[in-house]
Amino acid sequence: MTRLALYPGTFDPITYGHLDILERARHLFDAVEVTVAVNARKQTLFTIEERCALVEASVAHLDGVTVAPFEGLLVDRARARGAVALVRGLRQVSDFDYEFRMAFANRRLAPEIETVFFMTSEEHAFVAASIVREIHRWGGDVAPFVPPPVVDALRQRRPQ
Amino acid sequence: MTRLALYPGTFDPITYGHLDILERARHLFDAVEVTVAVNARKQTLFTIEERCALVEASVAHLDGVTVAPFEGLLVDRARARGAVALVRGLRQVSDFDYEFRMAFANRRLAPEIETVFFMTSEEHAFVAASIVREIHRWGGDVAPFVPPPVVDALRQRRPQ
Amino acid sequence: MTRLALYPGTFDPITYGHLDILERARHLFDAVEVTVAVNARKQTLFTIEERCALVEASVAHLDGVTVAPFEGLLVDRARARGAVALVRGLRQVSDFDYEFRMAFANRRLAPEIETVFFMTSEEHAFVAASIVREIHRWGGDVAPFVPPPVVDALRQRRPQ
Amino acid sequence: MTRLALYPGTFDPITYGHLDILERARHLFDAVEVTVAVNARKQTLFTIEERCALVEASVAHLDGVTVAPFEGLLVDRARARGAVALVRGLRQVSDFDYEFRMAFANRRLAPEIETVFFMTSEEHAFVAASIVREIHRWGGDVAPFVPPPVVDALRQRRPQ
Amino acid sequence: MTRLALYPGTFDPITYGHLDILERARHLFDAVEVTVAVNARKQTLFTIEERCALVEASVAHLDGVTVAPFEGLLVDRARARGAVALVRGLRQVSDFDYEFRMAFANRRLAPEIETVFFMTSEEHAFVAASIVREIHRWGGDVAPFVPPPVVDALRQRRPQ
Amino acid sequence: MTRLALYPGTFDPITYGHLDILERARHLFDAVEVTVAVNARKQTLFTIEERCALVEASVAHLDGVTVAPFEGLLVDRARARGAVALVRGLRQVSDFDYEFRMAFANRRLAPEIETVFFMTSEEHAFVAASIVREIHRWGGDVAPFVPPPVVDALRQRRPQ
Fold this sequence. Notes:
Six copies of one chain form a homohexamer.
Chain A lengths: L3 E6 L6 H13 L2 E7 L10 H11 L6 E6 L3 H8 L3 E6 L2 H17 L4 E6 L9 H9 L10 H9 L4
Parallel strand pairs in A: 1-2, 1-4, 2-3, 4-5
């Protein structure tokens, strides 16, 4: 049996923190799908196609990792794909409450799918996509926070 | 003397978590008014009239509970109604800071009105109206989270 | 019907923070019993008799407040006394988890007794009996933190 | 390849909260060892032999779960057993900091072993072995919190 | 050598909590610049010119304090001004995670500039500019929360 | 005027986390005294003389840093030495409440002395002396957590 897990998020853009969680999850599951939320109602810096492409370019070195855009209820996607788990990264206490709230709601809707939490490494514990966007906006150097394909993509856009 | 408490909120829509707090508060006060914030500047799923009607339908089994829309400073409402207390539910740590900040501001404005906190039961500790709206949006089943009148009201609306 | 609440604690010694909560609780209940835990297994600075006497001396100005030593399961005491509620003060986030854990356990054991939380005033939000004992130990001035009877009692003891 | 995880703790005694985590972990790993800390320097209610026996009696219905006493550095045990992960339950924010501190130390000592966190179910989120011992001590009913073998074991001891 | 620190924020409007931090910072640094974020994308109650003017009027009694509007990356400003530190106030746990995330990002971008945190006094620990705006909006009295120049400025505007 | 700050703690033993805070504090103050608490009532791994000696050996490369044992009320020491500030490191949320409680008590006792908080670097954010002692106890490698003089001192002691 292949154990598949979904790693859901907005990934606007993918950061080293996300990559770190993804690599950890890959050790424990046979396959991981990065499930990129379309988020049509929230304005994103990158389009859904760009966000997926940046994740793909950033995970090229990882076996058994796929990327897919998704719109809808996460547990529906998990069931459709036969996933056994949802993967989430915990960085700080402020993540805790939100993550638990979502995880409990998902458990009520799909008790057979487990949510498992991984710790981000210390180095990346304080990286957040929102801060990356802010630094980029003012022309700061984002290389310490995001993988090379994202650095390139940001370079090609003028800060807004 | 009748001890009246206000239970303020947006109730967009009322959840089992809200109902749980309301029933607890009712044990300790002679009467409780559910004070529904108009929130004209924030976009809500239900109108103020709908939100009040859904609270009313959901509390029909409770004696001594009334419902009223309100716009303005909460302590002004409390004074006008002769309330001795404001009731708040605490679910998680993330509620804590916001609730305390509001409670201290209210105390400065109206020292004679006490804010009291009740614990939501475990079962409902992670239910939030925002998550109910999200589940509804994607066609998920909201029945575990909200009382029957809200289930019906959501069914009659197409997810947006 | 007289609504009685218990306000349990070790009170080693009673502080202005405790007094503040007690006065708030007294506004919402007809009577409050300060239930002083014997805590035979934990070493206290004051004996159970001294702790009760210091509470009594400090609440002399408050109507409808009684003091009693107690050993056992708090919900048993609450039932024996016909109390409708347990009163707790919340000061900081670190109190939160412990208080909730106790409150949920008590609710399982005695669902008819509600635990209600009051906010300490800003002025006393950071006072803790353990810090009072530490300051006293090194000869510091405890008058900003504890009522006069406790100041006197501490003065009569040499710091250990 | 058999994926083994360790679930370490003191288990003094095992609670429904522990069992809940164990069952969740068992879904994601081929085998789970409950690693019971000897804790020679901390006074426990049950001896290490009793604690192991109570875990064994409580997990009899679970396939692929073993129990072992252990004294030493957890990562040494994990390496000796070829475990790929350490399993921890997260219940509340107060667990968070301690758990992360331990997990980071373990990661520095053994980077190849991942710590994964599972959420306790709402029902058991506030159960703690320390509260079970306190309730037992005063003759309260512990049956809502611990599995039948522990209820029996506690019944045979007089509260201390 | 003159040790300069920046105290950045939106100051919409400046509160007694801000003033308290500013006075504390002034004791430890030779000069403090209040760096007012333009925040062109966020709607503010007061314009950047008004916010700067209100800070200036409120700090007139303090030596060695200057005020400047700023748009961009904070560490760039700090370097341009030769500042040795960024000053931040910590009030509550909810501030903690956000502040740390920003501080770590700033440290990566400019390791030579230290972020230092001061505690707001108890009295002002729960004052927030967002609550001041809310109270003002409904015609409540803001005098306990903001200095006289801000009280005047708010009086001249009709609540929106 | 020489600005002196005290950096108080038990330092049982000094870790890289402590050193990190100390170096940051040294940038902002002209001199820093590491004030090592005697803690006669708490059992420590190292004696007060050993703890001071290990701090001294570990800070030899730092100008303007002195070390002194101390027993008593911290603010008394600060006044006697003419210190303008107390330095504390914040690592995690669990530190927050305790640190604030102490800081507020100290402020009441000595309003002229400021408590300032520095962030530990990510790398050392999860290092705690208690975890170092635990790792040492079971023969684990402590070199990633403590400076060389402490590694040597621990090597010369048999784990207890």
